[in-house]
Specification:
The chain is α+β, with helices and mostly antiparallel strands. It is built from 2 helices and 5 strands; from the N terminus they run H-E-H-E-E-E-E. It comes from Ruegeria sediminis.
Length: 114
């Protein structure tokens, strides 16, 4: 009788663990979908995005870098608004916008701060 109890307890825990993995997976999937929807990422042909940032907001490109095959760009204007873009294959996506942008310690081409 003891073996039967051990087996049923073992099966119960196996099923319980599988169920909990499924619950956690569902919760994480829902969270990721919610975050992606909340961010409302806007993508368009790079030239059109550049024109909008420049013409409508008065922003100019301040910094660029490459990460994972995508170009990362920071655009800002003298009044402190900024936009962060990712660009690849001629398409740019607005990832973040904000206020109070300023350069803390610009680096020159040789790697030294100005």
């Amino acid at each position: 009788m003891r073996r039967s109890t051990q087996r049923s307890t073992s099966i119960f825990w196996t099923v319980y663990q599988a169920f909990m993995v499924l619950v956690v997976w569902a919760a994480v999937s829902l969270l990721i979908a919610t975050i992606a929807e909340a961010q409302d990422v806007q993508c368009d042909v790079s030239g059109r995005i550049y024109d909008r940032l420049s013409d409508r907001l008065g922003e100019r490109r301040q910094a660029v870098g490459i990460s994972g095959g995508s170009l990362i760009e920071v655009w800002a204007n003298p009044f402190g608004t900024f936009t962060i873009l990712t660009s690849a294959d001629g398409i740019s996506c607005i990832m973040m916008v904000g206020e109070h942008f300023y350069l803390v310690n610009p680096v020159t081409a040789d790697g030294d701060p100005d």
